[in-house]
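Hi V.,

Quick status before I head out on leave. The structure for the redesign project is tokenized and pasted below; the design run finished overnight.
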């Protein structure tokens, strides 16, 4: 028993040896690992510092705390992620294309999710090290700075280190450190740091992982007698807060261009790009009226925008500005991985645009 308890310490003390690679070569191997088939156990620990806001409690709990996950991936669109907790587990199955299912052991309920998930809130599967690393590298693009960092041992393997530094000074992301298997490129550990000193705002790593021969029995949800079944549509930003205001959003805010709009999501504006992106949406009715007082009671700082009421929420990686122009019926939410100064300028530009329209 003493020997077994000491194995993790012994493993971490073993020498680390990785082949000689350039930063570009390691980045290319990580990106090429998207089709890897693997299975393992991973944990993420997020300290984004987001206060609870009505309508977004699921998101804030995911980004403020630990998430324990069992993972099986056959392909980028065929995988299963089980989130484990004291209350049971919640299993998500992606079966290719738009087919996905969620099993909740506490409610004994299997849910089929119909339709594409064009815009959606983050989910636990996004925090698995390979998914997180691939998204960050894709969004950072070639304009970011890349350099090698010291290798470490992760899940019993020697892992080569790659550091990504955004070049946009408005980004709240200070740097991203990724450690990956130097041969396959499979990411094993990811750490995201804000601009200030201290611990990473998000860390995700494998504690066990290995190659996996896909087994349809693992990737197929099974409904047993006595359990429930329901059908729903995917949760997305349009559904996170009801009563989205039908307001024509401008083509640019704070010098950032709006990304192309997909049909059916005209109420949502995505501005900037990469690791310096922010989202804008307007909320009307009681949901909109609650946003500002709820955010202030949760620790946000009062803010005046164009003579209207507002609040600014500052966190290590994600900042937000919520405001309602004087005499307007819609409350606007602006949030993303950009500085509060940029969001306040975007809010001022938006107030002028909607007042004139």
């Amino acid at each position: 028993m003493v020997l077994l308890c000491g194995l993790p310490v012994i493993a971490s003390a073993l020498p680390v040896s990785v082949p000689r690679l350039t930063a570009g070569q390691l980045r290319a191997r990580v990106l090429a690992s998207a089709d890897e088939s693997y299975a393992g156990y991973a944990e993420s620990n997020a300290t984004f510092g987001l206060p609870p806001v009505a309508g977004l409690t699921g998101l804030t709990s995911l980004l403020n705390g630990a998430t324990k996950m069992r993972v099986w991936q056959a392909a980028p669109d065929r995988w299963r992620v089980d989130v484990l907790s004291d209350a049971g587990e919640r299993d998500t199955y992606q079966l290719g294309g738009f087919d996905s299912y969620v099993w909740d052991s506490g409610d004994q309920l299997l849910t089929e999710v119909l339709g594409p998930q064009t815009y959606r809130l983050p989910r636990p599967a996004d925090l698995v090290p390979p998914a997180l690393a691939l998204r960050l590298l894709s969004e950072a693009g070639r304009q970011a700075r890349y350099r090698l960092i010291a290798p470490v041992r992760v899940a019993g393997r020697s892992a080569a280190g790659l550091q990504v530094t955004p070049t946009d000074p408005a980004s709240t992301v200070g740097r991203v450190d990724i450690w990956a298997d130097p041969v396959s490129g499979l990411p094993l550990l990811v750490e995201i740091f804000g601009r200030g000193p201290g611990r990473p705002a998000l860390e995700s790593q494998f504690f066990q992982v290995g190659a996996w021969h896909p087994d349809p029995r693992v990737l197929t949800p099974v409904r047993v007698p006595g359990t429930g079944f329901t059908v729903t549509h995917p949760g997305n930003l349009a559904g996170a807060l009801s009563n989205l205001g039908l307001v024509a959003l401008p083509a640019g805010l704070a010098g950032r261009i709006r990304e192309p709009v997909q049909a059916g999501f005209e109420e949502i504006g995505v501005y900037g790009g990469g690791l310096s992106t922010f989202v804008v949406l307007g909320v009307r009715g009681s949901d909109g009226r609650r946003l500002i007082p709820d955010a202030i009671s949760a620790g946000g700082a009062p803010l005046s925008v164009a003579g209207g009421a507002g609040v600014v929420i500052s966190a290590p990686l994600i900042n937000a500005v919520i405001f309602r122009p004087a005499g307007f019926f819609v409350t606007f939410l602006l949030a993303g991985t950009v500085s509060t100064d940029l969001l306040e300028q975007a809010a001022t530009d938006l107030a002028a645009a909607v007042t004139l329209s």
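Above is the designed sequence. The chain has eight helices and 20 strands.

G. will cover questions while I'm gone.

Best,
W.
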